[in-house]
Amino acid sequence: MPAAEKIARFIEKSSWIRKMFEEGAILKAKYGAENVYDFSLGNPNLDPPQVFTETLIKCITEKTPMKHGYMPNAGYPEVRRSVARHLKGEQGIDLTENEIIMTCGAGGGLNVIFKAILNPGDIVLCPAPYFVEYEFYADNHGGRIETAPCLKDFDLDIDGLASRVTPKTSAVLINSPNNPTGRVYPEKTIDNLVDMLRQKNKETGRAIYLVSDEPYRKIAYDGVKVPSILAAYENSIMVTSYSKDLSIAGERIGFIALNPKADDAKTLISVMVLANRILGFVNAPASMQKAVGRLQGISVDARIYQRKRDMLCDGLKSIGYEFLRPQGAFYLFPRSPIGDETEFCKRLLGEKILAVPGKGFGAPGYFRLSYCVDDSTIERSIPAFKRAWESVSGQR
Ligand SMILES: Cc1ncc(COP(=O)(O)O)c(C=O)c1O
After folding, report:
1. Does residue 56 fall inside a structural domain?
2. What are the CA-CA distances from residue 296 to residues 176, 291, 293 (Å)?
3. Quick one: pLDDT at residue 15?
4. How many angstroms is it from 215 CA to the middle of ligand 1?
């Protein structure tokens, strides 16, 4: 056996992603990439804003001593100051560089948080559908994800979450705008969630953290407001990245912001800084930190993704597909026209459309389409979606 048993099992568990990827590669080699409609990955297709490139060039050509050297494990103080200042303006929360840790993306940040807060056997409660990597991240640090299904409109089911809280619950983890549903949880929902957590804290005698994974915060549509979690609850930890909103997913840069009013905030920050170091990240990439520190508030134009959303939604709606129109991120999560969505994804594959079955997100009966793709891919895919729909007309 070349790999340890557990990770071998994980590979098995995520084999549908791999399968989709492999089958997609075969189709692309056979028919040409432009003739395959690849909606499988959330890899932003827009170029980063021009100002990002210009700023990065400045950062790497400036004569600054030790600019490629080690630094404080939390990141450059002036970059963290800039992030804190921006958060204050964006979310009205008073925090300083002492509550900010620069990380290797949101994925790196989530690992740092879990390493810092999970005791063996602890549970992270998460609404389903959810981003599949959460399970692996929690497991990395001896914890476990437990899920509570969302409501039909993909809003949080607060009673469902409440019924699953136990003394082992270390954190509730939410993601809004959501991957894979595109849902933004409204302010009222967040208020109800926070009330529930405060009640449970009293009952269990344990302060449950609210971890908010927000890499899509700046990609919201139709003027929808993404409520601030940091402003809503003391024991809150925000984690995010510039992967999606600056289109620099491969550069691995993001941050954690801890609510300064969290219980024992100073200790928790020190623990997370240590976790950043000993997980082997050491610190987030130096030049990327310098660049994003000067680009607070800059992002790609979300209206471009909104237009893509509309193209895809309008096309699929005219065929008969059922879905909730996403309020943010760049994913659409339609209901499969037949019960077994893996079977339907195979039909889509037969039409050279790559989609991801919902069971991988803890929501069988749906499939995910990432529409961070060229407009022409969306346009040309619609007749193929129609053929797949018609191919199961007898089974609906
Ligand atoms: C919900 C969610 N969280 C975290 C991540 C990880 O992003 P990053 O590139 O910042 O690590 C992703 C990436 O797709 C995501 O969709």
Report:
1. no
2. 20, 9, 6
3. 64
4. 6
In CATH, what number is assigned to the domain containing residue 265?
Answer: 3.40.640.10
Ligand 1 contacts CB of residue 284 (under 6 A): no
Is 182 close to ligand 1, i.e. is its CB under 6 Å away?
A: no
Residue 14's domain spans which residues? Answer: 5-48+300-395
Q: Is residue 53 part of a domain?
A: no
Residue minimizing CA distance to atom 14 of ligand 1: 42
Is residue 121 domain-shared with residue 147, that is, in the same domain?
yes
**CB-ligand 1 contact for 107 (6 Å cutoff):** yes
Q: What is the pLDDT of residue 312?
A: 98
177 upstream amide cis, omega within 30 of 0: yes
Query: In terms of Cα–Cα distance, which of 131, 132, 183 is closest to 329?
Result: 183
- pTM of this prediction exceeds 0.85: yes
Q: Is 243 in the same domain as 320?
A: no
Q: What confidence score (pLDDT) does residue 154 get? A: 98
Say yes or no: CB of residue 106 within 6 Å of ligand 1. Answer: yes
Give tens-digit pLDDT for 26-52: 999 999 988 999 999 889 999 999 999
Ligand 1 atom at shortest distance from the alpha carbon of 108 = 11
In angstroms, the CA 102 to CA 79 distance is 8
| 175 CA → ligand 1 middle, Å | 10
Q: How far is the CA of 173 from the centre of ligand 1 (A)?
A: 13
Of 293, 320, 353, which one is at a domain's C-terminal end? 293
CA 117 / ligand 1 centre spacing (Å):
20
In three state form, how does the secondary structure of 99-114 look? HEEEECHHHHHHHHHH
